[in-house]
Amino acid sequence: xxxxxxxxxxxxxxxxxxxxxxxxxxxxxxxxxxxxxxxxxxxxxxxxxxxxxxxxxxxxxxxxxxxxxxxxxxxxxxxxxxxxxxxxxxxxxxxxxxxxxxxxxxxxxxxxxxxxxxxxxxxxxxxxxxxxxxxxxxxxxxxxxxxxxxxxxxxxxxxxxxxxxxxxxxxxxxxxxxxxxxxxxxxxxxxxxxxxxxxxxxxxxxxxxxxxxxxxxxxxxxxxxxxxxxxxxxxxxxxxxxxxxxxxxxxxxxxxxxxxxxxxxxxxxxxxxxxxxxxxxxxxxxxxxxxxxxxxxxxxxxxxxx
Length: 306
Hints:
- With 306 residues, the chain is mostly helical.
- The chain has two domains: 132 residues, no CATH class; 128 residues, no CATH class.
- Helix content is 85%, strand content 0%.
- It is globular, with a radius of gyration of 24 Å.
- 19% of the residues are buried.
């Protein structure tokens, strides 16, 4: 009997691990409406706590006043970004007819080029497929997703307030303080390089008179938090807009080259230098994590996987 039990012990352990992982995943899915704002609030509280302590050491500003200043700055940035995104989406939707005409002209150009090279393409099938493709609904959904994040800011703020109340009423162990400092430093560097990438993206797109430059810059800021994959997506994200605006010409090539060079310099030189070492994450691990958190917490889960 003892030999039989020891024989199946590894199988029992694996089964228990699978059940525990399944239960944990179910809890994450079931509580995502509360846990996601809590995770965001936890990150914000760490940053605000580090900033308030720095202001206190540097300029003798009281800790409470430093926290209030951080909240005011945070709300101002959120309001400004929300207004820019809202105006960008409204202008894009208002010009939906123009973009439809440009898309049809682009398809006709591609079909004519294919005919010149003796490539047979079913023009009617392409036209019908494009007519059914919900591109503008997808844009509205992305905008609605971003705007829904801002509408939940009240819940995030409440979590932050309670977190700071708990920090003020209890002494933190030295290990916890060290971990918070390290996480805050990483977040500050990541936010800094993400802002830099977003500003550079906005400058490049504005210089080439690309529409939706502000929304694409904000998208770059968010995607930059996803390692390896995020900057790659942010690099090619403006290409459909450029294709609709100018067709396949020097605008698209110039923007692609500039954005690729910018992300390479920021991600592989500046971020590595500021963090002191590279993250050296396996792309397969990144993709697996991205899929898991996207399935569990949706698109926001992919943004928060770091």
